[in-house]
Design brief:
Length: 165
């Protein structure tokens, strides 16, 4: 697992340039993630890598392509001081867990990090930082792989039991 550190106000155009908005396949979008901003990301990112960012990560347009590109690249977790509201929800809907950690310290790309959402903290280089709680129903959506797979799971349960839950 690698940590990719980004600063404040990383917008969706930096995550996935607008010229790729006709693509909907997450793996294909991943080939263009951070193109022109941080080209090494798209060639070096691996499944399970974590993004650590500053304030307002994912600002800009409301396009779902940005978290889809990150999901296609294997990112399943982003820790940031704050997120743009629509990006936060789009991340969950695509199966990425956005963790808000307002007081995150100076994390470097060589840092060791462990995220404990149930316990309410991130540990980086031996220091614990409080995170905002992630509601259980949002974690269920992320664990299912996003909103669509989650809805399918609910539908299967209702079909099997013959009742709504």
């Amino acid at each position: 697992m690698r940590i990719w550190v980004f600063g404040d106000d990383i917008d969706t155009d930096a995550i996935i340039p607008g010229r790729y908005l006709t693509i909907y396949d997450p793996k294909e979008l991943a080939m263009h993630a951070f193109e022109g901003t941080r080209d090494a990301f798209r060639t070096d990112v691996r499944e399970g890598d974590i993004i650590v960012a500053g304030r307002n990560f994912g600002c800009g347009s409301s396009r779902e392509h940005a978290p889809l590109a990150l999901r296609g690249a294997g990112v399943r977790l982003i820790v940031a001081r704050s997120f743009a509201r629509i990006f936060y929800r789009n991340a969950i809907n695509t199966g990425i867990l956005p963790v808000v950690c307002p007081d995150i310290g100076d994390i470097g790309e060589k840092s060791r990090i462990a995220v404990h959402p149930e316990a309410g903290y991130v540990e980086a280089d031996g220091v614990q930082y409080r995170i905002e709680p992630v509601p259980a129903f949002l974690r269920k959506i992320v664990d299912a792989g996003g909103l669509v797979p989650y809805a399918r799971e609910i539908e299967e349960v209702e079909t099997c039991t013959g009742s709504r839950q």
